[in-house]
Amino acid sequence: MHDPVEQVLSNFRYYRKMKAARLKTGKTIRHHYDLETFIELKKRQNVMARFLDGLELTDLFFLGLQEQFGQDVRLLSNKLSWELPEAAFQIKKNPTPPTDETDKAIRQRIAALNQADIQLYNRAVALKASGYWQ
Q: Cβ(1)–Cβ(49) under 8 Å?
């Protein structure tokens, strides 16, 4: 699970990357969204809460946080008795997004539009901190 605001920004960067790739190959693009329009799309809001609708976090065998990727992969591999190479505990970081994507007002709007995901994420962080998935 990933911080909801960061996840929306990541989704937008991915959308923009895929759009650019399609344009480069001469394929058509149905929609051209800027960040402000993208975050207002209902299908881009509260994605994790909708995905997990009907499930309780406590029903999950394991839940990791993107921000603790290496630590959580190590914990999961121990739970499952997996022997993984050290490279499995590394994560590739995307370059820092442009300033316009991280503007405080944009982040506040994303947070306002994704309250269900934020509540879910905060619950996951609290459960994880309590040792629930240890």
A: no
Condensed to tens digits (0 to 9), the pLDDT of residues 26-38 reads 766 677 789 999 9
Dist. CA 30–CA 68, nearest whole Å: 36
- Name every residue whose Cβ is closer than 8 Å to that of residue 83 and which is 6 or more positions away in sequence: 77
> Does residue 17 or residue 112 have the better pLDDT?
112
Is residue 1 within 8 Å of 63, Cβ to Cβ?
Answer: yes
What string of DSSP letters covers 61-85?
A: S----GGGHHHHHHHHHHHTT----
- What letter would DSSP give residue 96? P
Sign of torsion, CA 5 7 10 14? negative
This prediction's pTM: 0.81
- Over the range 57-78, which residues count as b (16 or more CB within 10 Å of their CB) and which as e? beeeeebbbeeebeebbbbbee
